[in-house]
Amino acid sequence: MKVIITGMNGTVAPWIAKVYKSKGYEVVSFDRTKTNIDNEDAILKFIETQDPRVIIHCALGPVSWAESLARISRMLDITFVYTSTVSVYGNQQKGPFVVSDPVIPNDDYGTYKKQCEDACLAINPKSYILRLGWQIGYDEHNNQMLHYIHEKMKSEGVCKLSSRFYPSASFLEDTAQSIYAVVLNLPPDIYLLNSNHKYSLYEIGLYLKKQHPLIKIEEDLSFIYDNRMFDIRVPIKKLSELIG
After folding, report:
1. Does the UniProt entry include the keyword Mitochondrion (predicted)?
2. Where do the domains of the chain lie, and which CATH numbers do they carry?
């Protein structure tokens, strides 16, 4: 069994690859330096050569790339997964969010992700659309929460985290395990993947400081927002199991 994963140089895809490898899959990285993402015939040829059971699209790229992958997946009867983001909900919207809530992005990233979601579903109604929250890693690298904290420390000496901001957030390993479980056990649909049911960003930061004593954080009260996502269908480890 094979799974093709795009975005293997990114944050989430390598963790998804680890999970699929542990389940006996051969992981094939979609290398855009070798396959022209603007040429659907080239994409089709690559996918037919690999004959995967699943395609998981994590990479950033033109909407047309997502469209091509969704279309080819439908044509070849391959399970297609698109990883989206909580950012499709705009800051003017009030969370927590459930899957039936409208999506009204108000920044470029959220708008782009919404366009990709819509394009995939229009072409392939059996697409899995997985909206992810802020990812938590295990070091200061890649685009995740600890990296944000370290970058703020470098520029400001300390990272201020709001105790009035309740983010959607999950550890990378838990996100990857959840993606595998959703695709294996649930029908195609839009799903919301979030481990944080009750903690502020500052409280999460306090937990991370226990694991990484060198980080410096301070409580901030100025940013008030809640973008937690709730989806009872989704199996994912809760932060409360770790933080207590």
Report:
1. no
2. 2-134+168-193 (3.40.50.720), 138-167+197-243 (no CATH)
Taking the model in full, what pTM does it have? 0.96
Residue among 151, 224, 142, 205 at smallest CA distance from 175: 142
Burial of 216 (0-12, 13-18, 19+ CB in 10 A): middle
**pLDDT tens-digit readout, 226-242:** 999 999 999 999 999 98
In whole angstroms, give the CA distance from residue 236 to residue 244.
16
Residue 52: per-residue pLDDT = 98
Model pLDDT for residues 46-91, shown as the tens digit of each residue: 999 999 999 999 999 999 999 999 999 999 999 999 999 999 999 9
Angle between helix 63-76 and 40-50 (nearest 10) = 40
**Listed residue (178, 179, 193, 192) closest to 79, CA to CA:** 179
- pLDDT of the residue at 242: 86
Provide the 10 A C-beta neighbour count for residue 243. Answer: 15
Question: Exposed, middle or buried, 70 (CB in 10 Å: 0-12/13-18/19+)?
Answer: buried
